[in-house]
Amino acid sequence: MKSYITKSPNSNPYALTNPRAAVPVVSNRRLVFCSQPCRRTAEFAYLLTFSISSWWISAIKRLFDKSDGQFLEDESTKIFARKVAEHYSARTNQTLEEREASPIIHLKKLNNWIKSVLVQLYTRRGDAVLDLACGKGGDLIKWDKAKIGYYVGIDIAEGSIEDCRTRYNGDADHHQRRKKFSFPARLICGDCFEVRLDKVLADDAPFDICSCQFAMHYSWSTEARARRALANVSALLRPGGTFIGTMPDANVIIKKLRGAEELEFGNNVYWIRFDEEFSEKKFKSSQPFGIKYKFHLEKILFVGHQVTDFTLYSLFLWQDAVDCPEWIVPFHVFKSLAEEYDLELVFVKNSHEFVREYMKKPEYVELMRRLGALGDGNQDHSTLSPEEWEVAYLYLAFVLRKRGQPDRTQSNARRDKGQMYIGKEDIMNISEE
């Protein structure tokens, strides 16, 4: 991890120019030297990325090239899954200041907006929710606002499940600390793409909603894992139940790969790299699983200020927000496989298309404003950058529905099954059969 100390500028060279527009408005940015002023730490963090010379970026990439060779080559799917789990377990909760200082803060807020819209569109009061790859519980507030009746969260990373537990209990000391949640819950630690969940959750099913946000592609390393993931969703959803999710858009990623000179593409906040086995940039339709790539998303962590000789300095540390093996999910294969498990496509939209469509609705414009994804055009705040908007283009949102006639009349004692306070001993650990 490398440290940088540099002078903090104090003016905003860019801002939301049209806060009432129906689509995200990103102002034209120009390269601003560090001697020019800038007020917000987040803005300066963005500018700082430009000041890092190309040789340093190349050195970092060479480091990851070496890391790939040491830890990723010729390893089994289970080891990949553990690597993902270890990565997310190691990620610590950020303070509000650290979060707002991130150069991808508006991308995170945009992703939260997309997930919030999906939740509002398809969740009804009293619904039972199954959250696959729930992570640290970042969506708990969304479910609470939807007034759900019951929640089960599953994640492979022990550290993430522990963070989710403390967040649910209201014990966590971070920016999302709030009053107790209104719904009972259970938390499970295990690989939901490996373990058969209908046995584990026999007393909890059926669920009205299943959610898998920015994680479904981790099941696409093998056909067996992909089938297990969809079989779990189908087995646990009631007839007419809904499966909502977000994941990388394979069409966009492959298009960008083929437009790149080499096996790597990106901008100053992310890069994607494919292995040499894909040097021809051709993918066999008969082999839609196991198409692996490396995804790297930058995060600059704000550490603090220091005043020396009447000059204000800001200290930043370069860290990784995401640096994991991921897998291409050809959506036509995903759709076809889902149909085998009685899951029918309701819609699929690239994130850009999703934003343009739902920003036509006043209630979602207001939600976007509250979440702050576009900043505030009336104040000296930054907005969604072109680089973040490009990252958003890499993802899509989907909705599937389980075949059958909805039956919401059956009584369910799941409120007695879950708990309003979850102790460490209450977390269930599951493993493969």
Quick summary:
By secondary structure, the chain is of the alpha/beta class. It has helices at 41-51, 54-71, 77-90, 96-101, 105-122, 140-145, 158-169, 197-200, 223-236, 250-259, 331-340, 351-358, 362-371, 386-392, 414-417; strands spanning 3-7, 128-132, 150-155, 185-189, 207-213, 237-248, 264-266, 270-274, 292-308, 311-327, 343-350, 395-402, 428-429. It has one domain (3-8, 33-429): Rossmann fold, CATH 3.40.50.150.
Strand and helix map with partners:
Layout: E1 3-7, H1 41-51, H2 54-71, H3 77-90, H4 96-101, H5 105-122, E2 128-132, H6 140-145, E3 150-155, H7 158-169, E4 185-189, H8 197-200, E5 207-213, H9 223-236, E6 237-248, H10 250-259, E7 264-266, E8 270-274, E9 292-308, E10 311-327, H11 331-340, E11 343-350, H12 351-358, H13 362-371, H14 386-392, E12 395-402, H15 414-417, E13 428-429
Helix pairs in contact: 3-7, 5-13, 5-14
Q: How much helix, percentage-wise, in residues?
A: 25-40%
Remind me, CATH topology? Rossmann fold
Put simply, the count of helices is 15
pLDDT average, as an integer? 78
Radius of gyration: 22 Å
What portion of the residues fall into strands of 2 or more residues?
Answer: 15-25%
Task: Estimate nothing, just give the exact number of structural domains.
Answer: 1
Uncertain segments:
1-74, 87-91, 312-318, 377-381
Biggest β-sheet, characterized?
8 strands, mixed
Q: What is the class in the CATH system? A: Alpha Beta
What is the CATH superfamily label? Vaccinia Virus protein VP39
Return the CATH architecture: 3-Layer(aba) Sandwich
Helix/sheet category: alpha/beta
Question: Care to count the β-strands?
Answer: 13
Give, in spatial order, the strands making up the sheet with the most strands. 11-12-6-5-2-3-4-13
Shape, per Cα inertia axes: globular
First-to-last CA distance: 40 Å
